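User: Show me a protein chain along with its predicted structure.
Assistant: Here is one chain, sequence first, then structure tokens.
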Amino acid sequence: MMTDTARRLRPHPRRLRPVSLLVCVVGVGGLLLTLRPAAHPATGLTGPGVGAQAPALRLPDLQGHMVRLSSLQGRPVALVFLATWCEGCHVEMPALVRSSRALERHGLILLGVDAVGEERASVVRFVRAYHAPFPVLLDPSSGAMTSFAVRALPTTVIINRAGRIILHQEATVDGATLARAAFDQPHTP
């Protein structure tokens, strides 16, 4: 048998309906937000996701030669978006340097992209400090960062032989992850 105090403390079923409805709406809204494509925080632009055709990319390397992503079609490409001040980029570079030659022998093209428009001299010092054997491209306007929906550094984007994005990872990456993503057929859409 319920006491008067217990009855007063027990919520009435009608009072729970609006709360339950609110919890459901917030939950569904949160789910929908996580399913939509990533938007760049500065511009709000939405970039391509995994399975999408990679956007055009045309940037100079440290020697001033233009590199076009379209000219590399037919080979898997890993774009590693980085910055000289990025702590995760400093952590990632030794692993990229160690694995880059083996990955290149198997056909993967590894390209660093200075994503935040730093001065060429700063990027050159960064590349030399790690003895990076792969090209690093300069993106003075951060346009590639926007096109590829890069929201954090480092970010690695792997593009398959058909020009489709098969990996978009916002964290440090190692050689084994690059090899699995670039060469495992199940990842290829």
